[in-house]
Amino acid sequence: MASKTLAAPFIRHVTTRGYAQAAPAVKRDLRVQSAVLPNKTFVAALDNGSPVTRVTIAFKAGSRFEPQGDLGLAHVLRSAAGLTTKNASSFIISRKLSQIGASVSASGDREFVYYTLETTQDNLQAALDLLNNIVSNQEFRPWELNDNVPRLKFDLAALPPQIRAVDLLHKAAYRRGLGNSLFIAPKRIGQVSSESMQHFAGQCLTPSRCAVTIIGDTQEKAALIAQNLQLPSGGDGKAEASTYYSGELRKEMGGDLAHVALAVQGAPAGSPQSLALSIAAKALGNGPVTKWGADNSPLSKAIGNIGPFAAAGFNVSYSDNGLFGVILSVPKDEANAVSIDSLITICMTCE
Q1: pTM of the predicted model, to two decimals?
Q2: pLDDT tens-digit profile of 185-233?
Q3: 56 vs 21, 48, 68, 122, 139, CA distance in Å?
Q4: Which domains does the chain carry?
């Protein structure tokens, strides 16, 4: 019996796709527009003509602003994004976002918490109303915080060991402030109260600690978004300067590999030294360029042939300080020798 494999008119499909509408020309003169509003909110915009608009609202509410007696609030704040607000339940928020094809995510670092919206131009206004509701009207209901405990446990369980090493590195370098962990301690899970979260949000989610950026629309739109936020008045967000102390921390983990983070004091963000150190971190090495390829970086050459290992340079800069170093994953029996060689390489790079 004859095969019907070629019965489908596959050539016709190709021809049909050939008549698709051409993409609009990309704007050549792209400039970032920025301004500071009277309420001290910073706004910036880049109108690149994209059909997808991205809006990020950032607050100075990172882990360095946590009170020493109540650590972990920033992690809970990120995890609680999208829970019930004064105007809508978490189910309604999720359903409305799904109906218009939009997404909202929360992320953060040691200085900032970011709420990011991605949506199409046609549904921008409806999505912005939902984003405003998520950011401005959080309630942190106690039973919802209890229901959020499994998510916090999953966040900790899913952490790669390299991230844990860098987190401990900050603790060893700064003690407090920038030394505060990005993640809540396991013993603190379920212990954060609704009152603590409301107080922390009331102190940190304020206009003077806020920045609004938009990609795919104008600066006027960014300013309108910032003005529509219903935020309480508060402080200017100045944090106590974090002093670099240096030090060493260890955490016993199972397995055949040791994960080591080494660093020296870096430079604050925005300084020429910070830019130079960022380039130096890439020059140190970031693993093979191709899969199964050889790593010929200076860091790899300094480590030598010890079996399976991974090494990469990194540079992190904050408003008043920074760290420059390397992260290693090496056989545990070789960790001491490799750490010494890597430290020598860091010192030679900084000279």
Answers
A1: 0.86
A2: 999 999 999 999 999 999 999 999 999 999 998 999 999 999 999 988 8
A3: 31, 16, 28, 18, 21
A4: 33-228 (3.30.830.10), 257-350 (3.30.830.10)
